[in-house]
From TrEMBL:
PANTHER family: GLUTATHIONE S-TRANSFERASE OMEGA-LIKE 1-RELATED, GLUTATHIONYL-HYDROQUINONE REDUCTASE. GO terms for cellular component: cytoplasm. Glutathione binds at residue 89. This is Glutathione S-transferase family protein. Residues 164-291 form the GST C-terminal domain. The active site is at 56 (nucleophile), 187 (proton donor/acceptor).
Length: 349
């Protein structure tokens, strides 16, 4: 997410909270790209670049939503590498270490182009205005909602409604619970600076996972009968759980694979076009185990766990609900956006 203070950020010296309780810095750039351009940034084709990192769960959300809605032809994607330094996420995956569209080596350059004295985290996802080279927003919560509600004229034929108006109150309620106890809860465990704060976060995390296990036992998706924003937000934490959070963040009451409904639910989504084909497990592990030196000073990246089990049958289709409702799945990702073979476990792509 960022380069300092909040989880997937860049100041590695702040891995563990010195105050005991880990608190995420939620002060993001709230400028929005909207259909009417009320913040000065109207929705336009080929004007903006989504900068993400496959390692980051918060950025992963934006990549999935962009895929599901078919925004690839109008909104380009820049990908940072999995390992950053204390200053910024970097474009070390690109030739010469420079983003080919923005022509910058570090994401911080886009932040400083708009805010020369910017002092908070250099975070992904970020939407950058290509003509000016300036960051527009890094508000990960709003970015995906705006892709769904403000970019509608550019949605592909058959794009799902990920934020149905009649379900928004329930989606918002679920999102808040999941963010507090699960999405951010794993970080509150991993970056806790005292035994007491760790145990509080741990207990809240697994109480919420138990609640989700019960909720998802007899229904295929979190809200309604189709995939919504709520499922996307939960998925990006679940897909990292056994590889990272269980060991690295000490979220070890049990593995995801030991929770039958949640494990089947996560596999169901992983095997759905637009989800698993965005996941690069080697980058995920490299990021957490190499960047968070306060937790893992040796920077040794674990070899496991086994990943082919993500492709095992889930049988969630027997619950009778349809992932895209009256819509259709997205096609394969663009060739230049496909997960490298070493990171792909054979998900639909």
């Amino acid at each position: 997410m960022t380069s300092h203070e909040s989880g997937d950020q860049t100041n590695t010296s702040e891995d563990v909270s010195p105050r005991g309780e880990y608190t995420r810095d939620m002060r993001y750039i709230t400028t929005r790209v909207t259909a009417d351009g009320r913040d000065g940034y109207p929705v336009e084709t080929d004007r903006y670049r989504l900068v993400a990192a496959r390692a980051c769960p918060w950025a992963n959300r934006a990549v999935i939503v962009r895929r599901l809605l078919g925004l690839e032809p109008v909104l380009s994607l820049g990908l940072c590498g999995p390992v950053h330094d204390e200053r910024s996420w970097t474009f070390d995956l690109d030739p010469g270490g420079v983003d080919p569209v923005l022509r910058i080596p570090r994401l911080q350059d886009a932040y400083f182009a708009r805010f020369p004295d910017y002092s908070r985290g250099i975070t992904v996802p970020a939407v950058v205005d290509v003509p000016s080279g300036q960051v527009v927003t890094n508000d990960f919560r709003q970015i995906t909602l705006d892709f769904t509600t403000e970019w509608t004229r550019y949605h592909r034929d058959g794009a799902p409604d990920l934020y149905p108006e009649k379900l928004r109150d329930e989606i918002d309620e679920i999102n808040e619970l999941v963010f507090t106890d699960v999405n951010n809860g794993v970080y509150r465990c991993g970056f806790a600076g005292s035994q007491e704060s760790y145990e509080r976060a741990y207990d809240a995390l697994f109480a919420r996972l138990d609640w989700l296990e019960t909720r998802l036992t007899d229904q295929r998706y979190l809200v309604g009968g189709t995939i919504t924003e709520a499922d996307i937000r939960l998925f990006t934490t679940l897909v990292r759980f056994d590889s990272v959070y269980h060991g690295h963040f000490k979220c070890n009451r049990n593995k995801l694979t030991e929770m039958p409904a949640l494990w089947a639910y996560a596999r169901d989504l992983f095997q759905t076009p637009g989800f698993g084909d965005t996941i690069d497990f080697p980058q995920i592990k490299e990021h957490y185990y190499r960047v968070h030196t306060g937790i893992n000073p040796t920077q040794i990246v674990p070899k496991g766990p086994e990943l082919t089990n993500w492709l095992e049958p889930h049988h969630r289709e027997n619950l009778g609900e349809r992932p895209f409702g009256d819509g259709t799945p997205p096609g394969p990702p663009p060739q230049d956006e496909r997960v490298p073979p070493e990171g792909n476990v054979g998900s639909s792509s």
